[in-house]
Amino acid sequence: MALEIERKFLIHGMDWKNAATSCSFLRQGFVSIGSIGVVRVRLIDDQGVLTIKGPTRGAVRLEYEYEIPVEDAAEMLDELCIRPLIEKTRHCVPFGGLLWEVDVFVGENEGLCVAEVELEQEGQQIELPPWVGAEVTGDPRYYNSSLVRKPFSRWRSEKTDR
Amino acid sequence: MALEIERKFLIHGMDWKNAATSCSFLRQGFVSIGSIGVVRVRLIDDQGVLTIKGPTRGAVRLEYEYEIPVEDAAEMLDELCIRPLIEKTRHCVPFGGLLWEVDVFVGENEGLCVAEVELEQEGQQIELPPWVGAEVTGDPRYYNSSLVRKPFSRWRSEKTDR
Which of B28, B146, B151, B154 could connect to B42 by a Cys-Cys bridge, CB 3.0–4.6 Å? Predict the structure, then answer.
């Protein structure tokens, strides 16, 4: 078992970029998005990863992650995963003794940029970087599985329509 | 990629049992059952297996299978999988140059017994053992995912109700 405990924030400006130590391109999709959890396939540069996530309870969820052959991951993304796929560049940014991940989305979620940090325990005290804004932990609109069903580009067009 | 090509039959009597060369106990569940496919977790004796299956087209479907830690499989079965779980004893029965698998269900599917044989290609000629009855390949009632939603024990009670 692994328990995933993470917090998620919106981003202010680009100051995080100078502190970024690495970046990778993620192409990911969901084989299923259900009430029990999600099954995610990821291509991280040239690595394939299959992840089963349980239901979210606050900032905590059960998570099982396995490396799989890159050809399997690519084929599942092409043949099985729900459309649209999620595509984003992930930048690793060390801050306050923790490793923050800044995700810059492209494709149908272009314009969205969020920072995530993984914690060792719920309620753990953390120092917030100056470049993070509002916390969106637990806001279902920002789940990657929600960004498949309602990509960020459609949030804006709905606002314009009003 | 793996393409799974298999045919499934009902069983007549117990003559298959004398020819069975091995048997194992399977406890399995589904993390998701969707229109795109299913995500299955299996405990086969003391081995854990995670399987992603695409949609069925005739006797063929995309299938990806990975061995996972037995503790993960047990926990996913306990915590994440849709109820009821499927429990069955699988007997391996060589016949006509092929390996037949005879599944004897217990629990909520007790009374159901089916034989499956995996083929190398669709349309492959096979010799049928004398102990198989009607073919049920492609009959969705006999999918293991259907046996979760509508276990065999409930088929009989519905017949009795009429």
Answer: B28
Cβ neighbours of residue B162 closer than 8 Å, sequence gap 6 or more = none
**Taking CB atoms and an 8 Å limit, are B79 and A66 in contact across chains?**
no
Q: List the alpha helices (DSSP H) in A5-138.
A: 16-19, 70-79
Q: Of B157, B155, B125, B158, whose CA–CA distance to B139 is shortest?
A: B155
A7 burial class (0-12, 13-18, 19+ CB within 10 angstroms)? buried
Chain A hits for B71, CB-CB cut-off 8 Å, are: 1
**Per-residue pLDDT for B30 more than 90?**
yes
Diameter of chain B measured on Cα atoms? 46
Look at B31 and A37 and tell me if their CB atoms are within 8 Å: yes
pTM of the model: 0.85
Mean pLDDT value across residues A113-136: 94
A3-157 under CATH 2.40.320.10, yes or no: yes
Q: What is the ipTM of this complex?
A: 0.82
